User: Which sequence fits this backbone?
């Protein structure tokens, strides 16, 4: 199965991030597969010609997600700040809150008061809470059955809303 373009972009950025945000590769046909190893194993051989990867890297450079510098037959690829943010966004897309069995009977409440000037971050945060399985109690009060502090901390840091969000734990009213 051939992967979508966005998946290849995501995998290239993840490969660069996994190498400490700086990757040195030799962009020639024989050495490229060894350099990108596991990344290439995800794709059919004919779908990932070196020219295709080079084109995708140029696209990423035009989008200011990577910086590319040439030194002889070596190419240095470095994530930009925007590239690092994109990698974090991809990690947020893959995030799940693991179920705890048996349930400890405690609810985790996420309460926030994000100002209007951060409306986009607030709306994205709400949608992410919904995707993670949170239940809306009020517009800015959500609850989940399972421990979720690390995930919420990651999201609030990513969206730069940490100071507006609190996580509380307790029993539901009436228990």
Assistant:
């Amino acid at each position: 199965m051939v992967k979508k373009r966005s998946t290849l972009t995501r995998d290239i950025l993840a490969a660069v991030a996994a190498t400490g945000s700086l990757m040195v590769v030799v962009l020639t046909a024989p050495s490229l597969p060894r350099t990108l190893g596991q990344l290439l194993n995800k794709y059919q051989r004919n779908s990932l010609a070196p020219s295709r990867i080079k084109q995708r890297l140029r696209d990423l450079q035009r989008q200011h997600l990577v910086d590319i510098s040439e030194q002889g037959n070596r190419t240095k690829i470095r994530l930009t700040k925007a590239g690092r943010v994109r990698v974090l966004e991809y990690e947020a897309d893959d995030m799940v809150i693991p179920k705890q069995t048996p349930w400890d009977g405690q609810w985790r409440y996420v309460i926030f008061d994000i100002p209007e000037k951060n409306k986009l971050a607030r709306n994205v945060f709400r949608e992410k809470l919904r995707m993670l399985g949170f239940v809306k109690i009020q517009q800015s009060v959500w609850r989940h059955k399972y421990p979720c502090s690390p995930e919420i901390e990651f999201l609030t840091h990513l969206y730069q809303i940490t100071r507006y969000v609190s996580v509380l734990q307790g029993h539901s009213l009436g228990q």
User: Anything to note?
Assistant: The first helix runs from residue 5 to 18. The domain at 5-92 is CATH 1.10.10.10 (Arc Repressor Mutant, subunit A). Helices lie at 5-18, 32-41, 50-62, 81-94, 119-131, 149-158.
